[in-house]
Amino acid sequence: MTPEHIISRTTSDAEWKSLIFPHDYQNPIPQDKYHLVVIGAGPAGLVTAIGAAGLGAKVALIEAKAMGGDCLNVGCVPSKALLAAAKKVKNGKLSPEKAFDWVHQVRANISHHDSVERFSDAGIDVFLGRGKFTDAHTVMVGEAQLKAKAFVIATGSEPFVPPIAGLESVAVHTNENIFDLQTAPKSIGILGGGPIGCEMAQAFADLGSEVHLFEMAEQILIREHPEAAKLVSDSLEQRGVHLQLGEAVRQLAPSENGILVTAGDTSVEVECVLAAVGRKANFQQLDLDKAGVETHKRGITVDSHFRTSQKHIFAIGDVSSKYQFTNYADAQARAVIQNALFPGNSATNTDLLPWCTYTKPEIARIGLDAADAKERGIEVDTYRYDWKDSDRAQTEDDKLGFVEVLTKKGSDKLLGATIVGSDAGDQIAPLSVMLSTGTGLKDLSASLFCYPTRSEYLKRLSDAFNKTRLTPTSAKLLKFWLDKTL
Length: 486
Prior knowledge:
FAD/NAD(P)-binding domain, Enolase-like, domain 1, 7-stranded mixed sheet, 5-stranded antiparallel sheet, 16 helices
Protein backbone atom coordinates (compact mmCIF):
# COMPACT_ATOMS: atom_id res chain seq x y z
CA MET A 1 0.00 0.00 0.00
CA THR A 2 1.51 3.31 -1.09
CA PRO A 3 0.54 6.74 0.30
CA GLU A 4 -1.39 7.66 -2.85
CA HIS A 5 -3.56 4.55 -2.40
CA ILE A 6 -4.71 5.42 1.12
CA ILE A 7 -8.49 5.81 1.10
CA SER A 8 -10.46 8.06 3.44
CA ARG A 9 -10.95 6.94 7.01
CA THR A 10 -14.72 7.10 6.53
CA THR A 11 -14.51 4.54 3.73
CA SER A 12 -12.05 2.20 5.47
CA ASP A 13 -13.99 2.32 8.74
CA ALA A 14 -17.23 1.51 6.94
CA GLU A 15 -15.57 -1.55 5.39
CA TRP A 16 -14.09 -2.59 8.74
CA LYS A 17 -17.38 -2.30 10.63
CA SER A 18 -19.30 -4.17 7.94
CA LEU A 19 -16.95 -7.11 8.39
CA ILE A 20 -16.50 -7.38 12.15
CA PHE A 21 -19.96 -6.29 13.41
CA PRO A 22 -22.37 -5.77 10.49
CA HIS A 23 -25.34 -3.65 11.59
CA ASP A 24 -27.86 -5.65 9.56
CA TYR A 25 -26.69 -9.09 10.72
CA GLN A 26 -29.35 -11.49 11.99
CA ASN A 27 -28.29 -14.11 14.52
CA PRO A 28 -29.07 -17.68 13.43
CA ILE A 29 -31.66 -19.91 15.08
CA PRO A 30 -29.75 -21.94 17.71
CA GLN A 31 -29.33 -25.66 17.22
CA ASP A 32 -30.72 -27.95 19.92
CA LYS A 33 -27.23 -28.62 21.27
CA TYR A 34 -23.68 -27.79 20.23
CA HIS A 35 -20.50 -29.70 20.77
CA LEU A 36 -18.86 -26.40 21.68
CA VAL A 37 -19.96 -22.85 22.47
CA VAL A 38 -17.13 -20.32 22.36
CA ILE A 39 -17.64 -16.98 24.12
CA GLY A 40 -15.38 -14.29 22.71
CA ALA A 41 -14.14 -13.85 19.14
CA GLY A 42 -10.63 -12.61 19.76
CA PRO A 43 -7.55 -14.64 18.76
CA ALA A 44 -8.21 -17.41 21.31
CA GLY A 45 -11.88 -17.76 20.49
CA LEU A 46 -11.49 -17.57 16.72
CA VAL A 47 -8.82 -20.27 16.59
CA THR A 48 -10.87 -22.50 18.90
CA ALA A 49 -14.06 -22.08 16.89
CA ILE A 50 -12.63 -22.59 13.42
CA GLY A 51 -10.38 -25.43 14.57
CA ALA A 52 -13.25 -27.30 16.21
CA ALA A 53 -15.54 -26.71 13.22
CA GLY A 54 -12.83 -28.02 10.92
CA LEU A 55 -12.90 -31.29 12.85
CA GLY A 56 -16.63 -31.62 12.27
CA ALA A 57 -17.95 -30.26 15.57
CA LYS A 58 -21.14 -28.21 15.85
CA VAL A 59 -19.85 -24.83 17.04
CA ALA A 60 -21.44 -21.57 18.14
CA LEU A 61 -19.34 -18.42 18.50
CA ILE A 62 -20.52 -15.44 20.56
CA GLU A 63 -19.06 -11.92 20.30
CA ALA A 64 -20.30 -8.88 22.22
CA LYS A 65 -18.23 -6.11 20.61
CA ALA A 66 -16.33 -6.86 17.41
CA MET A 67 -14.94 -9.93 15.68
CA GLY A 68 -11.17 -10.10 16.05
CA GLY A 69 -11.17 -8.83 19.62
CA ASP A 70 -8.68 -6.28 20.89
CA CYS A 71 -5.82 -7.62 18.75
CA LEU A 72 -7.41 -6.70 15.43
CA ASN A 73 -9.42 -3.69 16.47
CA VAL A 74 -7.56 -1.77 19.17
CA GLY A 75 -4.39 -3.74 19.91
CA CYS A 76 -1.68 -5.54 17.94
CA VAL A 77 -2.82 -4.56 14.45
CA PRO A 78 -3.39 -0.80 14.85
CA SER A 79 -0.38 -0.37 17.15
CA LYS A 80 2.01 -2.02 14.70
CA ALA A 81 0.38 -0.14 11.83
CA LEU A 82 0.96 3.12 13.71
CA LEU A 83 4.62 2.20 14.25
CA ALA A 84 4.94 1.54 10.51
CA ALA A 85 3.16 4.78 9.60
CA ALA A 86 5.36 6.74 12.02
CA LYS A 87 8.48 5.24 10.45
CA LYS A 88 7.25 6.35 7.02
CA VAL A 89 6.56 9.84 8.35
CA LYS A 90 10.04 10.02 9.91
CA ASN A 91 11.59 8.93 6.59
CA GLY A 92 9.55 11.44 4.60
CA LYS A 93 7.47 8.81 2.80
CA LEU A 94 4.11 9.71 4.36
CA SER A 95 2.61 12.99 5.49
CA PRO A 96 1.82 13.19 9.22
CA GLU A 97 -1.82 13.96 8.42
CA LYS A 98 -2.16 10.55 6.73
CA ALA A 99 -0.70 8.45 9.55
CA PHE A 100 -3.95 7.53 11.26
CA ASP A 101 -5.71 7.02 7.92
CA TRP A 102 -2.98 4.45 7.20
CA VAL A 103 -3.73 2.70 10.51
CA HIS A 104 -7.46 2.51 9.79
CA GLN A 105 -6.95 1.19 6.28
CA VAL A 106 -4.54 -1.53 7.45
CA ARG A 107 -7.10 -2.60 10.03
CA ALA A 108 -9.83 -2.73 7.40
CA ASN A 109 -7.62 -4.80 5.08
CA ILE A 110 -6.84 -7.37 7.78
CA SER A 111 -10.38 -7.53 9.18
CA HIS A 112 -11.42 -9.81 6.30
CA HIS A 113 -9.54 -12.62 8.09
CA ASP A 114 -11.78 -12.30 11.17
CA SER A 115 -15.09 -11.41 9.51
CA VAL A 116 -18.52 -12.73 10.46
CA GLU A 117 -18.90 -13.95 6.87
CA ARG A 118 -15.70 -16.01 6.93
CA PHE A 119 -16.62 -17.82 10.13
CA SER A 120 -20.23 -18.32 9.10
CA ASP A 121 -19.03 -19.82 5.81
CA ALA A 122 -16.92 -22.25 7.87
CA GLY A 123 -20.13 -23.70 9.31
CA ILE A 124 -20.02 -21.82 12.61
CA ASP A 125 -23.17 -20.27 14.08
CA VAL A 126 -22.03 -16.72 14.87
CA PHE A 127 -24.07 -14.82 17.48
CA LEU A 128 -23.45 -11.09 17.92
CA GLY A 129 -24.40 -9.96 21.40
CA ARG A 130 -23.43 -10.48 25.02
CA GLY A 131 -23.42 -14.05 26.26
CA LYS A 132 -24.48 -14.79 29.84
CA PHE A 133 -24.66 -18.09 31.68
CA THR A 134 -28.02 -19.03 33.16
CA ASP A 135 -26.70 -22.34 34.48
CA ALA A 136 -23.68 -24.58 33.94
CA HIS A 137 -24.99 -25.87 30.62
CA THR A 138 -26.77 -22.86 29.11
CA VAL A 139 -25.77 -19.47 27.73
CA MET A 140 -28.24 -16.82 26.62
CA VAL A 141 -27.53 -14.27 23.88
CA GLY A 142 -30.49 -11.94 23.95
CA GLU A 143 -33.46 -14.27 23.54
CA ALA A 144 -31.38 -17.07 22.02
CA GLN A 145 -30.66 -20.06 24.28
CA LEU A 146 -27.49 -22.03 23.55
CA LYS A 147 -26.75 -25.41 25.09
CA ALA A 148 -23.53 -27.37 24.61
CA LYS A 149 -21.45 -30.30 25.70
CA ALA A 150 -18.57 -27.92 26.42
CA PHE A 151 -17.95 -24.18 26.67
CA VAL A 152 -14.79 -22.13 26.11
CA ILE A 153 -14.60 -18.66 27.64
CA ALA A 154 -12.23 -16.42 25.69
CA THR A 155 -13.47 -12.94 26.54
CA GLY A 156 -10.02 -11.36 26.76
CA SER A 157 -9.00 -8.33 28.79
CA GLU A 158 -9.46 -4.59 28.92
CA PRO A 159 -7.10 -1.72 29.78
CA PHE A 160 -6.42 -1.05 33.43
CA VAL A 161 -6.34 2.60 34.44
CA PRO A 162 -4.81 3.11 37.89
CA PRO A 163 -6.70 5.10 40.54
CA ILE A 164 -4.82 8.39 40.21
CA ALA A 165 -6.01 11.54 41.97
CA GLY A 166 -7.90 13.78 39.55
CA LEU A 167 -8.54 11.00 37.05
CA GLU A 168 -12.25 11.76 36.94
CA SER A 169 -11.57 15.37 35.93
CA VAL A 170 -9.64 14.65 32.72
CA ALA A 171 -10.00 12.51 29.60
CA VAL A 172 -7.42 9.71 29.60
CA HIS A 173 -6.87 7.66 26.46
CA THR A 174 -6.27 3.91 26.41
CA ASN A 175 -5.58 1.52 23.56
CA GLU A 176 -9.36 1.42 23.02
CA ASN A 177 -9.53 4.99 21.71
CA ILE A 178 -6.00 6.28 21.03
CA PHE A 179 -6.19 5.09 17.41
CA ASP A 180 -9.29 7.23 16.85
CA LEU A 181 -7.17 10.40 16.91
CA GLN A 182 -7.23 12.39 13.68
CA THR A 183 -3.60 13.46 13.99
CA ALA A 184 -0.81 13.11 16.53
CA PRO A 185 -1.10 15.56 19.46
CA LYS A 186 1.49 18.27 19.96
CA SER A 187 2.41 16.61 23.25
CA ILE A 188 1.47 13.38 25.00
CA GLY A 189 2.08 11.88 28.42
CA ILE A 190 2.30 8.09 28.44
CA LEU A 191 1.74 6.27 31.73
CA GLY A 192 3.70 3.03 31.80
CA GLY A 193 7.09 1.95 30.47
CA GLY A 194 6.15 -1.55 29.39
CA PRO A 195 6.01 -2.78 25.78
CA ILE A 196 2.86 -0.83 24.83
CA GLY A 197 4.07 2.37 26.46
CA CYS A 198 7.48 2.18 24.80
CA GLU A 199 6.08 1.33 21.37
CA MET A 200 3.62 4.23 21.53
CA ALA A 201 6.32 6.60 22.82
CA GLN A 202 8.43 5.76 19.77
CA ALA A 203 5.49 6.09 17.38
CA PHE A 204 4.33 9.48 18.65
CA ALA A 205 7.88 10.81 18.82
CA ASP A 206 8.39 9.84 15.17
CA LEU A 207 5.09 11.55 14.33
CA GLY A 208 6.43 14.77 15.82
CA SER A 209 4.80 14.80 19.27
CA GLU A 210 6.64 15.89 22.38
CA VAL A 211 6.53 12.70 24.43
CA HIS A 212 6.81 12.26 28.19
CA LEU A 213 6.99 8.64 29.37
CA PHE A 214 6.27 7.99 33.06
CA GLU A 215 7.41 4.73 34.68
CA MET A 216 7.43 4.09 38.43
CA ALA A 217 10.27 1.54 38.16
CA GLU A 218 13.88 2.62 37.78
CA GLN A 219 14.01 1.34 34.18
CA ILE A 220 11.60 0.74 31.33
CA LEU A 221 10.76 -2.79 30.15
CA ILE A 222 11.45 -4.36 33.55
CA ARG A 223 10.77 -7.90 32.27
CA GLU A 224 13.55 -7.70 29.71
CA HIS A 225 17.33 -8.14 29.73
CA PRO A 226 18.71 -4.99 31.44
CA GLU A 227 21.11 -4.27 28.57
CA ALA A 228 18.28 -4.64 26.07
CA ALA A 229 16.08 -2.25 28.05
CA LYS A 230 18.96 0.25 28.18
CA LEU A 231 19.38 0.16 24.39
CA VAL A 232 15.67 0.93 23.92
CA SER A 233 15.84 3.62 26.60
CA ASP A 234 18.75 5.29 24.81
CA SER A 235 16.94 5.03 21.48
CA LEU A 236 13.82 6.70 22.87
CA GLU A 237 15.85 9.53 24.38
CA GLN A 238 17.65 10.04 21.07
CA ARG A 239 14.19 10.50 19.53
CA GLY A 240 13.48 13.22 22.06
CA VAL A 241 11.32 11.20 24.45
CA HIS A 242 11.50 12.50 28.02
CA LEU A 243 11.82 9.52 30.38
CA GLN A 244 10.61 10.13 33.92
CA LEU A 245 11.56 7.02 35.88
CA GLY A 246 11.33 5.95 39.50
CA GLU A 247 8.24 8.00 40.39
CA ALA A 248 4.58 7.04 40.16
CA VAL A 249 2.16 9.52 38.62
CA ARG A 250 0.23 10.83 41.61
CA GLN A 251 -2.10 13.41 40.11
CA LEU A 252 -3.81 14.48 36.90
CA ALA A 253 -5.48 17.86 36.57
CA PRO A 254 -7.05 19.97 33.81
CA SER A 255 -4.82 22.79 32.60
CA GLU A 256 -5.11 25.70 30.20
CA ASN A 257 -3.68 23.73 27.26
CA GLY A 258 -4.53 20.16 28.22
CA ILE A 259 -3.64 18.04 31.24
CA LEU A 260 -1.13 18.60 34.02
CA VAL A 261 0.63 15.35 34.95
CA THR A 262 2.42 15.23 38.31
CA ALA A 263 4.93 12.50 39.15
CA GLY A 264 6.90 12.95 42.35
CA ASP A 265 7.76 16.66 42.54
CA THR A 266 7.66 17.18 38.76
CA SER A 267 4.65 18.47 36.82
CA VAL A 268 4.37 18.43 33.04
CA GLU A 269 1.61 19.88 30.88
CA VAL A 270 0.58 17.75 27.89
CA GLU A 271 -2.22 17.87 25.36
CA CYS A 272 -3.11 14.18 25.72
CA VAL A 273 -2.56 11.31 28.20
CA LEU A 274 -2.36 7.62 27.31
CA ALA A 275 -2.62 4.99 30.06
CA ALA A 276 -0.54 1.91 29.21
CA VAL A 277 0.06 0.37 32.62
CA GLY A 278 -1.48 -3.05 32.14
CA ARG A 279 -4.69 -4.96 31.54
CA LYS A 280 -7.38 -6.70 33.56
CA ALA A 281 -9.39 -9.80 32.71
CA ASN A 282 -12.84 -9.24 31.22
CA PHE A 283 -15.28 -11.67 32.84
CA GLN A 284 -17.55 -9.65 35.13
CA GLN A 285 -20.62 -9.66 32.84
CA LEU A 286 -20.76 -13.41 32.14
CA ASP A 287 -22.79 -14.32 35.27
CA LEU A 288 -20.24 -17.01 36.05
CA ASP A 289 -21.70 -17.51 39.52
CA LYS A 290 -24.80 -19.01 37.92
CA ALA A 291 -22.58 -21.57 36.18
CA GLY A 292 -20.56 -22.33 39.31
CA VAL A 293 -17.31 -21.10 37.75
CA GLU A 294 -14.74 -19.89 40.26
CA THR A 295 -12.78 -16.67 39.72
CA HIS A 296 -10.07 -14.69 41.48
CA LYS A 297 -9.19 -11.01 41.38
CA ARG A 298 -7.06 -11.38 38.23
CA GLY A 299 -9.31 -13.66 36.17
CA ILE A 300 -10.94 -17.05 35.87
CA THR A 301 -9.41 -19.91 37.83
CA VAL A 302 -8.18 -22.75 35.59
CA ASP A 303 -5.95 -25.80 35.90
CA SER A 304 -3.01 -26.58 33.63
CA HIS A 305 -5.42 -27.96 31.02
CA PHE A 306 -7.57 -24.79 31.00
CA ARG A 307 -10.49 -26.39 32.87
CA THR A 308 -12.42 -24.20 35.27
CA SER A 309 -14.11 -25.43 38.45
CA GLN A 310 -16.70 -26.90 36.06
CA LYS A 311 -14.83 -29.59 34.13
CA HIS A 312 -16.80 -28.98 30.89
CA ILE A 313 -16.19 -25.21 30.95
CA PHE A 314 -12.76 -23.97 29.86
CA ALA A 315 -11.13 -20.53 29.86
CA ILE A 316 -8.22 -19.44 27.67
CA GLY A 317 -6.44 -16.28 26.58
CA ASP A 318 -6.19 -13.04 28.55
CA VAL A 319 -9.21 -13.86 30.72
CA SER A 320 -7.29 -16.59 32.54
CA SER A 321 -3.63 -16.41 31.51
CA LYS A 322 -0.62 -14.75 33.10
CA TYR A 323 0.86 -14.27 29.63
CA GLN A 324 -1.30 -11.97 27.51
CA PHE A 325 0.05 -12.56 24.01
CA THR A 326 -1.80 -13.37 20.80
CA ASN A 327 0.55 -16.24 19.96
CA TYR A 328 -0.01 -17.80 23.39
CA ALA A 329 -3.78 -17.44 23.02
CA ASP A 330 -3.44 -19.34 19.72
CA ALA A 331 -1.44 -22.11 21.42
CA GLN A 332 -3.99 -22.44 24.22
CA ALA A 333 -6.81 -22.62 21.67
CA ARG A 334 -5.18 -25.51 19.86
CA ALA A 335 -4.77 -27.36 23.16
CA VAL A 336 -8.28 -26.66 24.42
CA ILE A 337 -9.89 -28.11 21.28
CA GLN A 338 -8.40 -31.48 22.23
CA ASN A 339 -9.52 -31.18 25.85
CA ALA A 340 -13.04 -29.94 25.13
CA LEU A 341 -13.98 -32.33 22.33
CA PHE A 342 -11.95 -35.47 23.00
CA PRO A 343 -10.47 -37.40 25.92
CA GLY A 344 -7.17 -35.78 26.75
CA ASN A 345 -5.20 -33.38 28.87
CA SER A 346 -3.36 -31.23 26.37
CA ALA A 347 -1.36 -28.33 27.82
CA THR A 348 1.05 -25.62 26.73
CA ASN A 349 4.64 -24.98 27.76
CA THR A 350 5.35 -21.34 28.53
CA ASP A 351 9.08 -22.05 28.27
CA LEU A 352 8.46 -22.24 24.51
CA LEU A 353 6.65 -18.88 24.35
CA PRO A 354 8.42 -16.16 22.35
CA TRP A 355 7.47 -12.51 22.58
CA CYS A 356 8.66 -9.30 21.00
CA THR A 357 8.59 -5.59 21.75
CA TYR A 358 8.51 -3.72 18.43
CA THR A 359 10.63 -0.73 19.32
CA LYS A 360 13.81 0.35 17.56
CA PRO A 361 15.70 -1.82 18.32
CA GLU A 362 13.26 -4.68 18.69
CA ILE A 363 13.58 -6.99 21.70
CA ALA A 364 12.60 -10.64 21.26
CA ARG A 365 12.82 -13.26 23.95
CA ILE A 366 12.05 -16.94 24.46
CA GLY A 367 12.49 -19.42 27.27
CA LEU A 368 14.49 -18.83 30.44
CA ASP A 369 16.70 -15.88 31.21
CA ALA A 370 19.54 -15.94 33.73
CA ALA A 371 17.25 -15.02 36.63
CA ASP A 372 14.76 -17.77 35.73
CA ALA A 373 17.53 -20.36 35.52
CA LYS A 374 18.96 -19.31 38.88
CA GLU A 375 15.52 -19.52 40.48
CA ARG A 376 15.16 -23.08 39.19
CA GLY A 377 18.66 -24.02 40.31
CA ILE A 378 19.92 -24.59 36.76
CA GLU A 379 23.55 -23.79 35.95
CA VAL A 380 24.00 -22.28 32.50
CA ASP A 381 26.51 -21.43 29.81
CA THR A 382 26.03 -18.16 27.94
CA TYR A 383 26.84 -17.59 24.27
CA ARG A 384 26.70 -14.12 22.77
CA TYR A 385 26.92 -12.65 19.30
CA ASP A 386 26.98 -8.89 18.68
CA TRP A 387 25.44 -7.53 15.49
CA LYS A 388 28.51 -5.35 14.95
CA ASP A 389 30.25 -8.63 14.02
CA SER A 390 27.65 -9.37 11.33
CA ASP A 391 28.72 -8.55 7.77
CA ARG A 392 25.09 -7.88 6.82
CA ALA A 393 24.66 -5.47 9.71
CA GLN A 394 27.86 -3.72 8.64
CA THR A 395 26.66 -3.33 5.05
CA GLU A 396 23.44 -1.73 6.30
CA ASP A 397 25.13 0.28 9.06
CA ASP A 398 22.59 -1.23 11.45
CA LYS A 399 24.83 -2.74 14.11
CA LEU A 400 22.90 -2.04 17.30
CA GLY A 401 22.09 -5.02 19.50
CA PHE A 402 23.08 -8.59 20.20
CA VAL A 403 22.00 -12.22 20.50
CA GLU A 404 22.40 -13.98 23.83
CA VAL A 405 21.65 -17.69 24.21
CA LEU A 406 21.58 -19.76 27.39
CA THR A 407 22.25 -23.49 27.42
CA LYS A 408 22.37 -25.97 30.27
CA LYS A 409 25.94 -25.97 31.58
CA GLY A 410 28.12 -28.33 29.56
CA SER A 411 25.34 -28.94 27.03
CA ASP A 412 24.31 -27.48 23.69
CA LYS A 413 20.58 -27.72 24.47
CA LEU A 414 18.89 -24.33 24.56
CA LEU A 415 17.17 -22.98 27.66
CA GLY A 416 16.38 -19.50 26.42
CA ALA A 417 17.48 -16.56 24.32
CA THR A 418 17.23 -12.80 23.92
CA ILE A 419 17.71 -11.00 20.61
CA VAL A 420 17.99 -7.23 20.39
CA GLY A 421 18.17 -5.51 17.01
CA SER A 422 16.42 -5.06 13.70
CA ASP A 423 13.81 -7.73 12.96
CA ALA A 424 14.49 -9.48 16.27
CA GLY A 425 10.94 -10.84 16.24
CA ASP A 426 11.70 -12.67 13.00
CA GLN A 427 15.24 -13.66 14.01
CA ILE A 428 13.98 -15.44 17.16
CA ALA A 429 11.93 -17.91 15.08
CA PRO A 430 14.74 -20.45 14.43
CA LEU A 431 15.52 -20.52 18.15
CA SER A 432 11.83 -21.16 18.86
CA VAL A 433 11.95 -24.18 16.56
CA MET A 434 15.16 -25.37 18.19
CA LEU A 435 13.65 -25.16 21.66
CA SER A 436 10.45 -26.97 20.71
CA THR A 437 12.28 -29.75 18.84
CA GLY A 438 15.24 -30.15 21.19
CA THR A 439 17.73 -29.16 18.51
CA GLY A 440 21.09 -28.19 19.97
CA LEU A 441 23.73 -25.70 18.88
CA LYS A 442 26.07 -28.43 17.63
CA ASP A 443 23.32 -29.64 15.27
CA LEU A 444 23.65 -26.36 13.34
CA SER A 445 27.25 -26.99 12.33
CA ALA A 446 26.22 -28.70 9.08
CA SER A 447 23.62 -26.06 8.17
CA LEU A 448 24.28 -23.50 5.45
CA PHE A 449 23.03 -19.92 5.55
CA CYS A 450 22.83 -17.29 2.84
CA TYR A 451 25.64 -14.74 2.91
CA PRO A 452 25.45 -12.01 3.98
CA THR A 453 22.40 -12.39 6.22
CA ARG A 454 21.63 -11.89 9.88
CA SER A 455 20.66 -15.55 10.10
CA GLU A 456 24.38 -16.38 10.14
CA TYR A 457 24.26 -15.69 13.87
CA LEU A 458 23.10 -19.30 14.23
CA LYS A 459 26.31 -20.56 12.64
CA ARG A 460 28.40 -18.29 14.86
CA LEU A 461 26.69 -19.56 18.01
CA SER A 462 27.24 -23.13 16.85
CA ASP A 463 30.92 -22.36 16.25
CA ALA A 464 31.21 -20.86 19.72
CA PHE A 465 29.78 -24.00 21.31
CA ASN A 466 31.97 -26.32 19.25
CA LYS A 467 35.07 -24.44 20.39
CA THR A 468 34.21 -25.36 23.98
CA ARG A 469 34.43 -29.03 23.03
CA LEU A 470 38.09 -28.63 22.09
CA THR A 471 39.59 -29.62 25.44
CA PRO A 472 43.35 -29.37 26.09
CA THR A 473 43.64 -33.14 25.68
CA SER A 474 41.78 -33.22 22.37
CA ALA A 475 43.82 -30.22 21.17
CA LYS A 476 47.04 -32.12 21.91
CA LEU A 477 45.77 -35.18 20.05
CA LEU A 478 44.83 -33.08 17.03
CA LYS A 479 48.23 -31.37 17.03
CA PHE A 480 49.95 -34.75 17.31
CA TRP A 481 48.01 -36.03 14.30
CA LEU A 482 48.64 -32.93 12.20
CA ASP A 483 52.34 -32.89 13.02
CA LYS A 484 52.53 -36.57 12.09
CA THR A 485 50.95 -35.98 8.68
CA LEU A 486 53.44 -33.32 7.54
